[in-house]
Amino acid sequence: MSTDKEIKANLRKFYDQDAKRRIEKPNTEEWKIAHRAAFLKRCKEASAGRILEVGSGIGRDSLFLKQEGQHAFPIDLSVEMVTHCRSKGLPACRMDSYHLAYKDNTFDAVWSLNTLLHVPKANIKGVWQEIRRVMKPGAIFFLGVYGGPDSEGVWEEDWDQPPRFFSFFTDDEILVRIQEVFHLLSFDPTDISRPKHHFQALTLQKI
Q1: Is the Cα torsion angle 49, 55, 61, 66 positive or negative in sign?
Q2: Could you write out the DSSP letters of every residue in 187-198?
């Protein structure tokens, strides 16, 4: 298996190159929009003001949250992605989810969509614990990843170079492992019309 250093370096290079394509691609997947709307509703009901986005990409979701009156703080490994976030007026930072440069109990909520599936299974609990550390007591965390098969490794058929590393959990496995760190509020396995994967939407809470 690739080392953490290699995995992160390849991810940074891939997403730096992929930024332009993502800008040109509209965000039209209805299932993503529905999950984001449900998260916003929970945030407003909980009066959650400060929201951390882990793996922001070009900043679409953080911009949406900002436009809805929230204070979004996007982070990403990619310099290009952070640059595009900042061009939208977002306080984006280049940051590694393994080591968040925030104090304990900083955020009212966390949003992470299809980002933490790049973390090896051996390290994912530590990343979840680091996210939990910067959350306030009672804060909510939306974790969205692709799952279904039990597998991890480099996707050699990736559409650009270098190919990315992915880890995928079965529903049973991710539910057992995530509840070692967070309280589970809801789990919504969503059909996204892919032959091998579905979307695992978990709404979690720090208690």
Answers
A1: positive
A2: EEEE--S-SS-E
Q: How far apart are the first and last CA of the chain?
A: 35
Torsion of CA 98, 103, 107, 112, to 10 degrees: -10
CATH number of 4-205: 3.40.50.150
- ∠ CA(197), CA(7), CA(171), 5° rounding? 25
pLDDT tens readout for residues 59-97: 999 999 999 999 999 999 999 999 999 999 999 999 999
Closest residue by Cα to residue 68 from 55, 85, 83, 51: 51
**Bond from prior residue into 162 cis (ω within 30 degrees of 0):** yes
Domain boundaries, the chain: 4-205
Provide the token pair at 147: 């799952």
3-state helix, strand, coil in the chain (%, to 5): 40, 30, 35
Closest C-alpha among 182, 91, 179 to residue 133: 182
Q: What is the pTM of this model?
A: 0.95
Q: What is the pLDDT of residues 29-48, one digit of tens each?
A: 899 999 999 999 999 999 99
